[in-house]
Amino acid sequence: MVPADIKELVAQMPTSTKKRVEFFKGLPLNKRGFVLLAMSRQQQHDILHHLNNKEVIAILHYLDPDEATDILHNVSHHRRADVLEALGGDIRGKVEFLLKFNPKTAAGMMSLDYIEVDKDASFGDVSKIIKRHEERTGKFPTVLVVQEGFLVGELPGHLLVLRKAKELIEPHCRRVPHVRFDSNQKQVIRIFKTHPHDKIVVLDDENSILGVIYSDDILRLMENQEANTLADFAGVSQEEDILDSAFAKVRHRYKWLIVNLGTAFIAAAIVAMFEETLTAFVLLAAYMPIVAAMGGSAGTQTLAVVVRGMALHEVKPETARRVVFAEMTAGAMNGLIIGAIVAGVALLWNRSPWLGFVLGVSMFFNLLFAGLFGALIPQIMKRMGKDPATSATIFITTATDVCGFFVFLYLASLVL
Quick one: pLDDT band at residue 1, thresholds 50, 70, 90? Predict the structure, then answer.
């Protein structure tokens, strides 16, 4: 199926699980597997839960072994064994082999749709091997050239119609990037970006070929990671989908909202410390949202730049201090500019030079802190083994609110 058609079918699905299952069962059988793969893991789980084993097996027969493996990773071990028992011999063996590997590693992404040919083979020999493979699988394979079982390169398929049958393949094979079977998904993406190619070969501990990762699988992984980073950035679960039910959305989000509520009380506690100052100068309350908004915006800007730098491997341990210092300096300079503007507005609007002074100095320190925390928090989370983008905005906003309110109200209590 065309990817756009799959996305359109997924977008048409109802939000109710019952109606979604009915919609899914109404699709042509040969399309159901591809639609299932395009869903979130939660949606996949809901659909599979309402299908019997015969229906699941019928779907898997239209998929490649690696695609069938992706779906079976989302069912229970007991049910997976029953489904495998009923699958055909060839596909069953391949799926059982793929299920041995961690789905988040290179081996978990690979396909078994390839053949190995010796470097001393002729184009006629390769054509015969390909013909047998096509008769067995119905697909044209990737042709990997080996010497004594070790990878030499790849033979482009189009050369089979351009060369004579007796001509040797060795001079025409080309290098192909490869990766260890236990490499993580980030390493696979890095190799794909460094060596632009349509596939990556997966090798085992002894450098023997295990499988091939195709470009469409890597591009789909990159799309999912971008979507997950955006979800994490907003404090939304990676498993949540736009078509999930209201109950599922609440279950995914409420924990981060509770964390956010707790951090908001910290900022409220700082404000409560200066209750007498606010009572005496009620005008200060009108400027507090400005202090909070500017600090949060500046911190989020810094966070976005730093997370992008970490994703591109530009932020490393040896450059961490320089990044923090540069962001603090930028925050201080922006603080001078914004502080001068806010001070001028307070002077003209409220005719109070001291209020302008308090606002200007507060804004300077607030944006300085925004640069510090915006650059520091994602790096701390990274060292703790957490996703640096995961809900970092909650902690950065809290830090800027607490520091900004404290400086603003403390200066006001001293000066005003």
Answer: low
For the residues 377-391, what does the mean pLDDT come to? 73
Q: pLDDT for 234-259, tens place per residue?
A: 555 555 555 566 776 777 677 777 88
* 246-415 CATH choice from 1.20.810.10, 3.30.70.1150, 1.10.357.20, 3.50.50.60: 1.10.357.20
How far is the C-alpha of 171 from the C-alpha of 151, rounded, in Å? 15
CATH of range 109-233; options 3.40.50.620, 3.90.180.10, 1.10.10.10, 3.10.580.10:
3.10.580.10
190/169 Cα distance (integer angstroms): 30
- Residues 341-355 have pLDDT tens digits of 999 998 888 888 888
User: CB under 8 Å to 265, separation ≥6 — which residues?
Assistant: none
CB atoms under 10 Å from CB of 269, counted, come to: 11
- HSE (CB half, 13 Å, CA atoms) of 113? 16
- pLDDT tens for 99-151 read 888 888 999 989 888 999 999 999 999 999 999 888 877 788 889 999 988 99
Residue type at position 348? L
Closest CA to 35 of 51, 11, 52, 57: 11
DSSP track, 23-81: HHHTS-HHHHHHHHHHS-HHHHHHHHHTS-HHHHHHHHTTS-HHHHHHHHTTS-HHHHH
Class of domain 3-100: mainly alpha
pTM: 0.56
- Work out whether the CA dihedral 246, 249, 251, 256 comes out positive or negative: negative
Q: What is the dihedral of CA 309, 311, 312, 314, to 10 degrees?
A: 40
Please give the pLDDT value at position 227: 56
**Mapped to the 3 state alphabet, what secondary structure does 265-291 carry?**
HHHHHHHHCCHHHHHHCCCHHHHHHHH
Tokens (6 digits) for 18: 């019952």
- Tokens standing for residue 243: 């078509």
What integer pLDDT is reported at residue 121 of this predicted model?
Answer: 92
Contact 57, 87 (CB under 8 A): yes
For the record, the structure tokens of 256 come out as 């981060």
Helix-helix angle 53-60:77-86, to 10 degrees: 60
The residues that bridge with 212 in the sheet, in sequence order, are 111, 201
